[in-house]
Specification:
- Pathway: Purine metabolism; purine nucleoside salvage.
- Keywords: Glycosyltransferase, Transferase.
- This protein is an alpha/beta fold.
- Helices cover 29% and strands 21% of the residues.
- The protein has a 5-stranded mixed beta barrel, surrounded by 4 helices.
- It is globular and about 80 Å long.
- The protein starts with 6 loop residues before the first helix and ends with a helix.
Length: 314
């Protein structure tokens, strides 16, 4: 079965949304708010308009009960017209990739030229600590390589090319700007916020990765792992939208204890107590959920501050 959403659906959604906005309002920047980071949309106070996904033709809504209802929030941040996407759906909820990425195409047709993507992730690289903010410079998407790509199927030829290069998926100019505003911010320096380049690994979820999978992704060059953002990035680049992706490290996915069942069995038969029994402490890998480590999510205010400063410079 071909995964497709008719281009007419995009136009219907755009027409409906425009009917709710001022005629002269054209968003310049889109913000995709990751799980636990919906407070980014709270930056929008001036000229604020909220549109629930359930109101928009063609939009699907999240099946995760703990999530904030999906909506588009329009308004002004730092004198810049923006639209924030909150409570977005994920592929693991049972929708198609074209359905979950439709909001990106709609935001493009509404006028955005820049997309700031945020999410939570788990560290594969010990150099990235809980609470660090990763500036994604590249990604590894095994699902995409294997055929699970939102661009598979009929091409939206009016929006982008049939064959798309992803070699420069993340805008260098925007990444540099993120580091510059961070380095120039006494507030972020005082709070010891750490910004670091990283390679993001995308997995589908909702099950988290095994120890062996985490080790393999690290060996492939991955620094962090998560179950969101990449389909949206692929569609944004297809639409010629510049992308900045910021990921908040909320937990770790490395340093697992190696356990040998064989050694434990031998020791037990010898009557020797084995220190290798599995414990709950071995299961500490969570990403992109509300269950993420609280000390990581406590940094969300710093990420919001960083994004505000970036928008002010754009």
């Amino acid at each position: 079965m071909i995964d497709t959403v008719p281009s007419s659906t995009c136009q219907e959604a755009v027409s409906y949304i425009k009917s709710l906005l001022s005629k002269d309002f054209v968003p310049k920047i889109g913000i995709a708010c990751g799980t636990g980071l919906n407070s980014i949309a709270d930056l929008i106070v001036e000229s604020r308009v909220e549109v629930l996904f359930t109101q928009i033709p063609g939009f699907v809504h999240s099946t995760v009960l703990t999530k904030t209802p999906g909506k588009l929030v329009f308004g002004i941040i730092e004198d810049t017209p923006v639209v924030a996407l909150t409570g977005s759906c994920k592929y693991y909820e049972g929708y198609t990739l074209r359905q979950v990425t439709l909001p990106i195409r709609v935001m493009k047709l509404l006028g955005i030229t820049t997309l700031i993507v945020t999410n939570a992730s788990a560290s594969l690289n010990p150099d990235l600590k809980i609470g660090d903010i990763g500036v994604v410079e590249d990604h590894i998407s095994l699902p995409s390589i294997s055929g699970l790509n939102p661009l598979v199927g009929p091409n939206y030829s009016k929006m982008g090319p049939r064959f798309l290069s992803m070699s420069e998926a993340y805008c260098f100019k925007l990444r540099k700007l993120a580091f510059q505003v961070w380095l120039k911010s006494p507030e972020l320096m005082k709070r010891k916020v750490e910004l670091k380049d990283c390679v993001y690994c995308y997995t589908v979820g909702p099950s988290f990765e095994t120890r062996a999978e985490c080790e393999a992704l690290c060996r492939l060059g991955g620094d962090v792992v998560g179950s969101s953002a990449i389909p949206e990035v692929q569609v944004a680049r297809h639409c010629n939208i510049d992308v900045l992706c910021l990921t908040l490290i909320t937990t770790v996915a490395h340093g697992y204890t190696k356990k040998s069942a064989k050694e434990a069995a031998i020791n037990e038969l010898k009557g020797v107590s084995s220190p290798l029994s599995a414990t709950s402490n071995d299961i500490f890998h969570f990403h992109d959920t509300g269950s993420s480590n609280k000390s990581g999510l406590s940094r969300h205010a710093d990420l919001v501050s960083l994004i505000k400063k970036v928008i002010n410079e754009l």
